[in-house]
Design goal:
mainly beta; Elongation Factor Tu (Ef-tu), domain 3; 6-stranded antiparallel β-barrel
């Protein structure tokens, strides 16, 4: 009988982007600055049929890759980099400086036109790879 609790910590996991973000933010501006921003998600044409059932106005989760975040991170960080705030553990923060550069944001779906989704509140930079879209 094998021990299913043994984890291979060196295992690599690869993802293929399903699309990318288009907006006016090429540099980090912070999640609060971007909460009122409209972005477009350009989906791979081959995946458009997967949008069936999404409805305008619903909340969706967008999972994306922090492709411009440095690979290093601290286990304890100041929220939003503000040294006036006490440090918290990386898993208690939404920082892009984390063990795996995966971001997730709940957004409002404003429009679907072919392979383009227009959303409100996505705090990802222009050209950020999108990994997945899920309903809330």
């Amino acid at each position: 009988m094998s021990d299913k609790t043994t984890m291979n910590w060196d295992r690599k996991i690869c993802f293929r982007p399903i699309g990318f973000v288009q907006n006016d933010y090429d540099e980090p501006a912070g999640p609060l600055a971007m909460c009122g921003v409209t972005s477009r998600i350009i989906l791979d044409d081959a995946l458009v049929e997967g949008l069936y059932g999404l409805e305008i106005g619903q909340s969706i989760q967008v999972l994306f890759y922090f492709d411009r975040s440095p690979g290093d991170f601290d286990l304890h960080q100041h929220p939003c980099g503000d040294t006036n705030l006490p440090k918290k553990g990386v898993f208690a923060l939404c920082t892009p400086h984390r063990p795996n550069g995966i971001g997730v944001t709940q957004v409002e779906l404003l429009k679907i036109e072919g392979n383009v989704l227009t959303v409100l509140g996505l705090d990802a930079l222009n050209n950020t790879p999108v990994l997945d879209i899920k309903p809330c």
